[in-house]
Amino acid sequence: MATLVPAPVTNFPDAMENEQLTVQRAIDGDQGAMRALWTRHAPHIDVVVRRMVGHDADLAADVAQDVWIQIFRALPSFRGDAQFGTWAHRIAVNRTLNALRRHRRLAALEVDVEDDSASVEPEADRAMLAASIEHAAARLSPGARTVFLLHDVEGYTHEEIAEQLGITSGGSKSQLFKARAKLRVMLAHLIDAPSSMRIRPTPTEHAAPLH
Question: Which CATH code for domain 14-105?
């Protein structure tokens, strides 16, 4: 059995101060500081983009690159009111939504998942739980997936989603209902699994409204 190694204890205020210094150096054009920010936060940004884009790996890679271009362009506007990771996360969500609009991914809001897409093989390994949920979400229609991720993962309200996507709050609620219903079917084996394997909702912090 693998031995769990305790994570090193980090002084949070010191870590925040160090990152603020890194951000300031990046604003001043320090390439090493920019590389440090990218190395630290790119894995999370990639996850955010992939979840929203779905199975299109090429589009996800393009969007992630665009996100970082925008992050570095917007660095002078970073005031430190929130953590850099939270600020970058919001940019990632906004830029991905813009990319999905450009690719007309949100035009098919009423497209249903194909019937055979509800077939998901049970997995006994708890480590695969997160991958199963992400894989199932990627099988949703673009509109349903986007509303599901914004509401249940990112924590936005239906009113904020409606404003961002150009739909009604009722349309957002309808898409969320459909997304949850399809996910229940696709993840039935996890819902009915022993308590240690069941899906548990993970609370998320809604950092800031979309702009």
Answer: 1.10.1740.10
